[in-house]
């Protein structure tokens, strides 16, 4: 089971590609929702308010977990901008990423093949200007027990080297764990078998 993915954690530096007086500014952003996409687009449109086109593509999620993607030509000929940009997201095998390419028209038409090349190259340059990291796909569990059973829980956490996200250690103890997807079933079963200890999956 694949439980890792590649992404970026901070926006790329601005990149610039020129062709026949047209300027193409490229940007890559980390995004986790369509609202993030909207905010990034608004920021870039304010920054480049006199540009002709703000073309973009994004992908959120993974194939194993609710993949969402979109490509937008923003007035350029059909499939000459958004899809070449999206092609670079696929080429770099990243997700939770938005690439925006802003075009200032230079007075000379590039033709569809010229546009495809310009948007593809700008998107590629934006990704090359980004630091790509590998992250794990995790499940979040809440483990609950009485204080007298806490040592048993802590022993499993230590033995399995589990990641504790949050804990409330009182008469009723609650410990939130983040577990890699491929280990999650085994960890769940381990706690499920323990006496007077409960475990449930929660949305992270």
UniProtKB/TrEMBL annotation:
State the Gene Ontology BP annotations: regulation of translational initiation
UniProt cross-references to Gene3D superfamilies, sorted A to Z: Impact, N-terminal domain
Q: Domain Impact N-terminal, which positions?
A: 20-126
State the InterPro entries in the record.
Answer: Impact (IPR023582), Impact_N (IPR001498), Impact_N_sf (IPR036956), Ribosomal_Su5_D2-typ_SF (IPR020568)
What protein name is recorded for this chain?
YigZ family protein
**PANTHER family hit by this protein:** IMPACT FAMILY MEMBER YIGZ, IMPACT-RELATED
- Signal peptide limits: none
Q: Which domain of life is it from?
A: Bacteria
Q: So what family is this one in?
A: Belongs to the IMPACT family.
Q: Name one GO cellular component term.
A: cytoplasm
